[in-house]
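Ticket #4471: structure output looks truncated?

Reporter: J.K.
Steps to reproduce: submitted the chain below (130 residues) through the standard prediction queue, then opened the result file.
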Amino acid sequence: SSGLRGSATSPVAPPTKSTPLAPVGRGAAVAEQETMEGQPSVEEPLDLIRLSLDERVFVKCRGDRELRGRLHAYDQHLNMVLSEVEEIANVKEESSNGKEPSVRQVRRGIEMIFVRGDSVILVSPPLRSS
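Returned output as attached by the reporter:
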């Protein structure tokens, strides 16, 4: 099953009974434990994404696109639902006089977006102050 994991306040439909909510694999029981400093532990790669639910994240996508937004839900394929999104697309423009193509940034705001996981290159969680 491939249901999106989300926060309780997420506008995404709640998971069905067949959708697992707990992390899967070796670190499943350990994932909810905390380290000595009281910080949640990261045992598997998706734990980092889980700890970023309802936080602002940076997502670098294929096609020279970057997204910054609040993470509402995700799944094991890195399909994600983001809100309050700023998209930055780097667009190459061919010059007519034979020079190198120029690159300009196109920015736009998006209220809510579904990001297909196969377009995701990198996900960066919010900066955590120590």
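Triage note (M.O.): checked the attachment and the full token line is present. The radius of gyration is 18 Å.
Status: closed, working as intended.
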